[in-house]
Amino acid sequence: MRQASSQHSESALAARLRGLRQQRGWTLGQTSKASDVATSTLSKIENGLMSPTYDILLKLAKGLDMDVAELFTVAQDHMGTGRCCIERKGSGEIHDTPLYRHQVLCSHLSHKSMMPFITRIKAHALAENAGWSRHDGEEFVYVLSGAVELHTEYYQPAVLSAGDCFYIDSRMRHRVINHGKDDAEVLWMSTMPSPPELHHEQL
């Protein structure tokens, strides 16, 4: 069942990205220039051959001038006060990568100041240089189950268990990996990038 959901998510992302690009009349080269994502990477994503990292999704969203969630579904372009979005248990757009399974929440609102999602951090042995990320914004992570290990470029690694949490400046190089035999689950909140260029690091 999980495999089918993952395949559906990836095909939906591929079709959505291709559609957004074609709506603008852009070539892969033009999209690459706007988003600072390599043309070869864009081609792989559109053909379902690559699962983009969160950093790449941020760059695509910035280049296309939309929220990350809008890469998966059409958002309600509803500005002004009094906005509200309710997400029922088990719903939310799924984005599956080799290291994480993100369930993007409240994706129907556009121009949000933060991106909430539930993430399953997969039990996975990683090389020292794998899984690192760096981008504009800030992140808050609350561990729901299992244990994770936070690595940053300025601090010693820290292990967090269910009930623990952390808040970081996302411009600092960082990664969150599993620290147990079973998958861990966290509530992840990431603020949207500010206008300056993202400090993207290819993973």
TrEMBL record:
InterPro entries: Cro/C1-type_HTH, Cupin_2, Lambda_DNA-bd_dom_sf, RmlC-like_jellyroll, RmlC_Cupin_sf, TransReg_Diox_bact_type
Annotated Gene Ontology cellular component terms: cytosol
MF annotations from Gene Ontology: DNA binding; DNA-binding transcription factor activity
Any single Pfam family the record assigns to this protein: HTH_3
SMART domains found in the cross-reference section: HTH_XRE
Domain HTH cro/C1-type residues, every copy: 17-71
Record keyword Iron present: no
Gene3D superfamilies: Jelly Rolls, lambda repressor-like DNA-binding domains
Keywords, comma-separated and alphabetical: DNA-binding
Record-given protein name: XRE family transcriptional regulator
Species of provenance: Paralcaligenes ureilyticus
Lineage of the species this protein comes from: Bacteria, Pseudomonadati, Pseudomonadota, Betaproteobacteria, Burkholderiales
